[in-house]
Amino acid sequence: xxxxxxxxRLMTMKAQPGRGDELAAAMLSVAAGLRDFPGCEVxxxxxxxxxxxxxxxxxxxxxxxxxxSALDAARTATAPVGIADVxxxxxxxxxxxxxxPLGGVGLxxxx
Length: 111
Known about the structure:
Elements: E1 7-14, H1 20-34, E2 40-47, E3 54-61, H2 64-76, H3 83-88, E4 95-99
Antiparallel strand pairs: 1-3, 1-4, 2-3
């Protein structure tokens, strides 16, 4: 099965106790800013049903260069939410898993 050049990430972020809704809102704001970002195919924010202070983000990018470009842009962004704002809400460094998107429902151009 060929994956093409797409790249993906699964990010898990743990908010300080009681700040899960605030972190989720911040990440939804980040997602809104990526809506028209070149190469961003999926940027899905989810809140853990059992532990609402845990936020999961599924990312799919056209290629690694697009993902890097978005991260570079985020490093200098301050409005509406900057990286420093997000990191200040966390209890620990975000956990990142790199993925090779293969396809599925909702991923355009993939089987």
